[in-house]
Request: fold
Amino acid sequence: MFLAGGIIALHAAAALCVLAVLPGWPGFALAVLLACLGVAAAWRRALLRARSSVRALELAGPKLEVRLASGERFAAEPAARRYAGRHLVILPLRRPMRRTILVTRDMTDADSFRRLRIWALWGRLPVAGEQLAAQ
Reply:
């Protein structure tokens, strides 16, 4: 919610700047368009309400499967450069579409986030101690 509020607030500030610089109906029209763009960006990017929003990531070895809000699933190829920090993981995708997925610590439970961080760093999931002993 904070990200959505920030996006809308920054677009509203841009709209006020346009009103200050460009008087009359052209400035007003552009300001309204900027405000609407802020709402649309917050809806799509921050609130994840669009049909193309990522709802789930499924990891299987080096493979990544993405599930969208529309129910569509597809295998994705992540880029070689990824970022995994204490509070967030950034996964740029190359195929089938170029997009970047940002996952923060509070979006999932602690164990799933830890596994995602390890996968982002090493490209594979950790192996449990019991599995090592059985092999």
Remarks:
- Residues 54-126 form one domain.
- Residues 108 and 114 are 10 Å apart (CA to CA).
- Helices lie at 2-21, 25-46, 110-122, 129-134.
- The chain has two domains: 2-46, 54-126.
